[in-house]
C-alpha cells in the first residue's frame, strides 16, 4: 500500500515547525508558508474548501456536525434563541454550515466589503491576518441584540485574539450571558489556554469551546525570519521560471506555480449558466441569513444544480465548483447538490485574498497557485487574488461561482480569473449569484399598523367576537406533508412556524366522537370558563382586554368574552395574536395593543398548559419587548381554561380533561390556520401571518362549539362563581410539576428532548393530528376522555401504552430522531 506523505512535511523539515495533538490533526491540516510579516506558517485545512479542493459533502459535513454539537451543548431551547457569527473570509461558509447544524439559528458573517447604505453594527481586528478590518453589516441590527447565545465560528482557534476582540466589541453593545466558540481545530499554545476562561470571568458570561480536533504548533526560535527567507528564495525562483509562460495541460502538471503572463493572447470567454437564483434571496450571510431563507434555498437547489449539470461537457469526470472569496456557502451548497446528480467526481474550493507560497512537492499543502487581479472593485483598491491547487489538478470543467458585484470587466480580461482557469481546463462555466443589497430601511417605523382582521372576511367568527392581529396569507401555499415537516423540524432544517401541516380532515366516525365529547363535556367547560373569567375580573382588571394566543386560545377567549357579557353585561375587547416557540410574541401586535389600550388591562389567554413552554416564552418575550420599546405594564401571566402542568396562577381547573376544541384544527377555531412566521413573508413591521380556510366551511363547527358551551352558562353560573371564590382563597403558586414530569419521561424513554414530549389531552391530540407520533402514554383507567385519542392512534398505527401514576391523563411522544426512512412513506410510527 502506497504511503501518503503528510502535506506539512516540507515546512516541518525546513523550519522545525512541529504539529502535535489529536491523531486526526494531520488528516485535517497541512502546512504552507505565508507571505505575511506577522506569521511565517499557514495551517492549511483539508476540509474547509478554501485552499484545497475537497468533496463538498465532506466540507459541509464537518461544519454541520460542529453545529449539531453546539445544539447538544446548548439544548434545544437555547439553540432556538442562538445567533451564529462567522469570520470573513475563510470561515464564512463554515459558519453557515454550523448554523445549519444548530438548526433554527440565523446566521451573519463579518465582511471586508463595505456596502453603501448599510450601517455598521460592529467591527473588530484580526491581528495576524493580511487584511485585518472586519465589518458587521446585518440588515436587521436586532439580529445581534437578542439575549440568546452567540456562536462564533472560525476555521482555527489559535491565539484567541480574534474571538476576544469580537466578544469585547459586541458585549459592550449587546451584552449577553453566553457565548460558544466553534472551530475546526483548537491550536492554542499552553500560554493561551487560560485566556478564554479569564476573559469570561472578566465580562461575567459563560464561554464554551467546540472543536473537531485539538493540538498546538511548536515554533522554534527565529521561525519568522527563517520563513520569510524561504519565501523570498522560492518566490524569486518561481517568478524566474514562470514569467511569460503559457501552460498547456501537460506543462501545468509539471510546472505547478503559474503567475500571470505579460502580453498573453486572449482566451475564449466562459459559458454562462443561468442559475435561476430565487428573487430576493440573500447570496450568503453578509447581511444575515434566516432559517426561512435556508428553506427557500433548499427548495431551489435541485433545479439550479440541474442547470449546471446540463451545461457540463459530456463525459466530464472531474468537476470543480470554485467559489469567490467570502461567497463560500452558496457555491458549496450548489456543489453538494451537483455531487448528488452527476456521475463525475465533484470538488469544491474558493478563491482567496491570502498570499501563500506555492511549491510542487507532495509534502507541501499548496502545490499550485493561479494569480489574477481583483475583480469586485474592492474598497481597499486593486490587488492580486489567488486560486490554489487548481492548476494541474486534472479538472475537466470548472464552474466559477461569483456574485454579481464581482461580475466586472476585470473578471473577463486576458489575465482575469476566467482566462487563468481556461489555461488549465477545457471547460469554464460562469454562474452569477445576484449580490444581495438590503433595501434602505425606512427612517421611521410606520405610524399606524393595520386594523385587526375580522370575520366574515377573515375567520368564521362574528366580527365582534375577535379581532385578529395577523396578516392574511390565504393565497400563499404553505402546507407541507406531515412527514416532511417532522423531518425538517427535527433535523434543524426548518422551524415549525415556517410552514403549515396539511389540515386533518376528520372521518365521519371521528366527527361523531367530537359531537359526543362536546355533549358530555360542554357543561364542565362552561364552569371552567366561568371560573377563570371571574378570577380575571377579580384579580387582573374590572375591564380586561382579552388577548388570546392564536389559535388554541381563541375559542377560550371568545367564551370568556361571552361569559363576561352574560354574567356582568360587559362588552370586553378580544384580540388574537401570534406567539411562536423559540421566536417570541408578535412585537407589532404588542405595539398595536399598547397604542390602543392600557397594557395593564391586557390579559393573555390560552386553552391549556402542557409543560409550560409558552408560559416561559411569553414571559421572556414581554421582558425583551418592554426593554426595547420602553413600554411597561404588560403582565405575562396567562389565563387558561385548564392548567394540568401547574404552570400558571389564573386557571379554571387543573384537571387534565378533554376540551373538544383540541380534537380538531381550524374547523373548531374559526377556520384559521396556525400562525406563520417566515422572513420572506413577514417583514419587520408586519403582523405574523395565518390562512383562512374558506374552503372548509362545510366542516366548520367553530360556532357550534361556542354555542354548545355558552348554552350551559345559566346552569353553571352559581357553581362557577363558587369555584372562583375557592380558587381566590387557594395558594395557586405554580409548582411546574408538569415540566418535571416531562423531563422524567424524556429520560425514561430515552428521547432526551423535552420538545418531543407533549403532555395532556390537548397536546397529545395535536401530536396525532400534526406530527409523527411514536407512542401514546395513557393513565391507567382513563375513560371516555381518551376515546378520540385511541381512535386517532388506531388510524395512524400508534401504540397506546397504559402507565400507572401518570400525572396527566395522557402524554403524546413524537417520533424521536425522525426521518421518513425510519417510518416509511405512510408516516406511521414504528418501534425503535
Can you tell me about this structure?
The protein contains 23 helices and 33 strands. The chain is α/β, with parallel strands linked by helices. α14 (508-540) crosses α18 (702-710). The longest helix has 33 residues, at 508-540. InterPro entries: PELOTA_dom, PRTase-like, PRTase_2, StiP_N, TRSP_dom.
Task: Pick out its properties.
single chain, 832 residues, alpha/beta, 7-stranded mixed beta sheet, 6-stranded mixed beta sheet, 33 strands, 34% helix, elongated, disordered C terminus
- The shape is elongated
Q: How large is the radius of gyration? A: 31 Å
Largest sheet report: 7 strands, mixed
Count of alpha and pi helical runs = 23
Outline the low-pLDDT stretches: 127-132, 239-267, 485-494, 820-832
Quaternary state of this entry equals single chain
| Termini gap | 41 Å
* Percent of sequence in beta strands: 15-25%
Structural class: alpha/beta
Q: Number of DSSP strands?
A: 33
Assign a percent range to the helix content: 25-40%
Organism: Streptomyces mirabilis
Pfam families: PELOTA_1 (PF15608), PRTase_2 (PF15609), StiP (PF11202), TRSP (PF12500)
Keywords: Glycosyltransferase, Transferase
Protein name: Phosphoribosyltransferase
Amino acid at each position: 500500500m502506497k504511503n501518503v506523505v503528510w502535506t506539512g512535511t516540507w515546512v516541518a523539515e525546513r523550519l522545525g515547525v512541529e504539529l502535535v495533538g489529536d491523531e486526526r490533526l494531520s488528516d485535517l491540516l497541512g502546512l504552507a508558508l505565508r507571505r505575511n510579516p506577522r506569521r511565517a506558517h499557514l495551517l492549511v485545512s483539508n476540509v474547509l474548501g478554501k485552499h484545497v479542493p475537497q468533496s463538498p459533502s465532506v466540507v459541509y459535513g464537518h461544519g454541520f456536525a460542529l453545529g449539531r454539537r453546539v445544539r447538544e451543548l446548548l439544548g434545544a431551547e437555547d439553540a432556538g434563541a442562538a445567533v451564529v457569527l462567522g469570520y470573513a473570509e475563510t470561515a464564512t461558509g463554515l459558519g453557515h454550515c454550523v448554523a445549519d447544524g444548530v438548526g433554527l439559528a440565523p446566521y451573519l458573517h463579518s465582511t471586508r466589503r463595505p456596502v453603501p447604505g448599510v450601517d455598521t453594527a460592529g467591527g473588530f481586528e484580526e491581528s495576524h491576518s493580511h487584511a485585518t478590518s472586519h465589518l458587521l453589516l446585518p440588515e436587521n441590527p436586532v439580529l445581534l441584540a437578542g439575549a440568546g447565545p452567540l456562536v462564533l465560528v472560525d476555521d482555527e482557534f489559535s491565539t484567541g485574539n480574534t474571538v476576544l476582540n469580537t466578544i469585547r466589541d459586541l458585549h459592550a453593545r449587546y451584552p449577553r450571558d453566553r457565548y460558544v466558540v466553534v472551530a475546526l481545530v483548537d491550536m492554542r499554545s499552553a500560554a493561551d489556554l487560560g485566556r478564554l476562561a479569564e476573559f469570561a470571568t472578566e465580562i461575567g458570561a459563560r464561554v464554551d469551546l467546540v472543536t473537531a480536533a485539538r493540538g498546538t504548533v511548536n515554533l522554534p526560535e527565529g521561525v519568522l525570519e527563517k520563513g520569510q527567507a524561504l519565501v523570498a528564495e522560492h518566490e524569486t525562483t518561481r517568478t524566474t521560471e514562470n514569467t511569460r509562460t503559457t501552460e498547456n495541460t501537460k506543462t501545468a502538471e509539471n510546472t505547478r506555480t503559474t503567475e500571470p503572463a505579460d502580453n498573453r493572447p486572449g482566451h475564449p470567454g466562459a459559458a454562462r449558466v443561468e442559475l435561476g437564483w430565487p428573487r430576493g434571496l440573500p447570496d450568503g450571510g453578509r447581511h444575515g441569513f434566516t432559517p426561512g431563507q435556508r428553506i427557500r434555498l433548499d427548495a431551489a437547489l435541485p433545479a439550479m444544480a440541474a442547470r449546471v449539470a446540463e451545461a457540463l461537457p459530456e463525459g466530464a469526470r472531474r468537476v470543480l465548483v470554485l467559489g469567490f472569496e467570502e461567497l463560500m456557502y452558496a457555491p458549496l451548497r450548489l456543489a453538494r447538490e451537483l455531487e448528488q446528480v452527476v456521475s463525475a467526481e465533484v470538488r469544491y474550493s474558493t478563491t482567496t485574498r491570502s498570499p501563500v507560497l506555492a511549491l510542487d512537492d507532495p509534502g507541501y499543502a499548496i502545490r499550485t497557485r493561479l494569480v489574477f487581479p481583483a475583480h469586485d472593485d474592492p474598497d481597499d483598491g486593486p490587488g492580486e487574488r489567488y486560486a490554489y491547487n487548481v492548476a494541474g489538478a486534472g479538472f475537466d470543467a470548472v464552474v466559477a461561482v461569483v456574485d454579481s458585484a464581482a461580475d466586472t470587466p476585470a473578471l473577463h480580461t486576458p489575465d482575469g480569473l476566467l482566462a487563468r482557469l481556461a489555461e488549465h481546463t477545457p471547460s469554464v462555466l460562469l454562474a452569477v449569484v445576484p449580490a444581495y443589497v438590503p433595501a434602505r430601511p425606512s427612517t421611521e417605523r410606520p405610524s399606524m399598523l393595520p386594523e385587526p382582521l375580522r370575520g366574515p372576511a377573515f375567520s368564521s367568527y362574528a366580527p365582534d367576537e375577535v379581532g385578529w392581529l395577523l396578516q392574511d396569507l390565504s393565497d400563499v401555499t404553505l402546507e407541507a406533508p406531515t412527514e416532511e415537516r417532522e423531518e425538517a423540524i427535527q433535523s434543524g432544517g426548518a422551524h415549525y412556524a415556517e410552514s403549515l401541516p396539511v389540515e386533518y380532515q376528520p372521518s365521519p366516525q371521528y366527527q361523531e366522537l367530537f359531537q359526543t365529547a362536546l355533549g358530555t363535556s360542554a357543561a364542565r367547560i362552561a364552569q371552567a370558563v366561568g371560573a377563570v373569567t371571574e378570577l380575571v375580573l377579580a384579580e387582573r382588571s374590572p375591564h380586561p382586554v382579552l388577548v388570546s394566543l392564536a389559535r388554541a386560545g381563541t375559542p377560550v377567549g371568545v367564551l370568556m368574552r361571552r361569559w363576561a357579557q352574560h354574567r356582568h353585561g360587559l362588552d370586553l375587547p378580544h384580540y388574537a395574536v401570534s406567539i411562536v416557540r423559540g421566536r417570541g410574541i408578535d412585537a407589532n401586535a404588542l405595539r398595536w395593543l399598547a397604542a390602543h389600550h392600557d397594557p395593564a388591562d391586557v390579559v393573555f389567554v390560552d386553552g391549556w398548559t402542557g409543560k409550560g413552554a409558552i408560559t416561559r416564552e411569553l414571559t421572556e418575550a414581554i421582558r425583551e419587548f418592554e426593554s426595547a420599546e420602553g413600554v411597561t405594564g404588560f403582565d405575562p401571566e396567562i389565563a387558561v381554561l385548564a392548567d394540568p402542568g401547574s404552570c400558571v396562577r389564573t386557571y379554571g381547573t387543573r384537571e387534565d380533561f378533554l376540551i373538544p376544541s383540541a380534537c380538531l384544527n381550524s374547523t373548531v377555531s374559526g377556520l384559521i390556520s396556525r400562525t406563520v412566521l417566515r422572513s420572506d413573508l413577514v417583514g419587520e413591521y408586519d403582523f405574523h401571518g395565518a390562512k383562512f380556510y374558506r374552503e372548509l366551511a362545510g366542516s366548520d363547527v367553530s360556532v357550534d362549539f361556542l354555542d354548545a358551551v355558552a348554552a350551559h352558562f345559566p346552569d353553571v353560573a352559581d357553581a362557577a362563581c363558587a369555584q372562583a371564590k375557592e380558587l381566590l382563597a387557594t395558594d395557586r403558586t405554580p409548582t411546574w410539576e408538569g415540566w418535571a414530569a416531562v423531563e422524567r419521561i424524556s429520560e425514561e424513554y430515552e428521547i432526551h428532548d423535552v420538545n418531543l414530549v407533549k403532555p395532556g389531552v390537548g397536546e397529545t391530540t395535536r401530536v396525532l393530528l400534526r406530527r409523527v407520533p411514536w407512542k401514546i402514554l395513557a393513565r391507567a383507567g382513563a375513560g371516555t376522555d381518551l376515546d378520540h385519542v385511541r381512535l386517532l392512534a388506531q388510524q395512524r398505527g400508534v401504540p397506546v401504552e397504559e402507565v400507572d401514576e401518570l400525572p396527566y391523563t395522557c402524554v403524546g411522544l413524537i417520533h424521536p430522531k425522525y426521518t421518513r426512512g425510519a417510518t416509511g412513506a405512510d408516516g406511521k410510527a414504528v418501534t425503535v
